[in-house]
Design a protein that fits this description.
Mean pLDDT: 95
CATH superfamily: Glycoside hydrolase/deacetylase
Number of domains: 1
Largest sheet: 5 strands, parallel
Helix content: 25-40%
Length: 235
């Protein structure tokens, strides 16, 4: 069993991201981030490639704030992370033609498939022509899927071998979300219009995302998704 930590930025303010970045630096633990927008926290991670694999998190859904069409969205994100090799699409939106275009931009690893707590997950290659392909690495668990359960327990089925890619969102780590209540208040008030003091009023006290994230730091492998893909290529 190999546990890997990943994060979808999802427009989280830096005061939510910075404590996580500090945790990972303190633990000397590698992680993969999929970013939606630029910020000082994002640039801080880009400046530490030995610890943070920074990829992109494009939103191709209608009314995207990242651009008017796919080309503009990709170009805007790659201007933030010019050396990005990993992608996870927002809301896991995907189709074959879309992924072929993403591969044509030079991305190498896609993690847009969710296989909730499935055992024996492993990377696999998808070729779009005789030059371009993506190594696809599904993710095993996400707190957003956990929170949609009738009774979230934050106790995934670790049994069996295979990759266990965990997908966290900084906002839910910050809020220690065990329900969507605090998050919905923030969304209603405006995530990036709420300061840290106001956001702290929405933190939940039961066993939730923050507590599970702290457990994940103890069991995660010190690898990024790109390193897993490269290991597959060399095997």
């Amino acid at each position: 069993m190999t546990v890997l930590i990943s994060f979808d930025q999802d427009w989280a303010p830096d005061y939510m991201m910075t404590p996580i970045i500090d945790d990972l630096i303190r633990c000397n633990l590698k992680s993969t981030w999929f970013v939606t927008n630029d910020s000082p926290a994002v640039q801080r991670m880009i400046d530490m490639p030995y610890l943070f694999e920074v990829g992109i998190h494009p939103n191709f859904l209608p009314d995207s704030t990242q651009g008017r069409d796919m080309s503009e969205i990709m170009n805007n994100l790659l201007s933030i992370v010019p050396n990005a090799k990993c992608v996870r699409t927002h809301r896991a939106y995907q189709h074959h033609t879309l992924l072929a275009i993403i591969a044509d931009y030079g991305l190498e690893v896609d993690s847009s498939i969710y296989l909730g707590e499935m055992q024996h997950i492993r990377p696999f290659d998808v070729w779009y022509d005789d030059i371009h392909h993506l190594t696809r690495i599904p993710y095993f668990w996400s707190e957003e899927s956990e929170l949609h359960k009738p009774r979230p327990f934050f106790n995934p089925d670790w049994g069996g071998c295979g990759l266990k890619v965990l997908a966290f969102h900084p906002v839910h780590v910050f809020l220690n979300s065990c329900t969507f209540r605090g998050y919905r208040v923030l969304r209603r008030n405006g995530l990036n219009r709420t300061d840290e003091l106001g956001a702290r009023e929405c933190i939940e006290s039961w066993f939730g995302t923050r507590r599970f994230y702290e457990h994940a730091l103890e069991i995660a492998a010190n690898k990024t998704l790109l390193e897993i893909a490269l290991e597959k290529k060399d095997s």
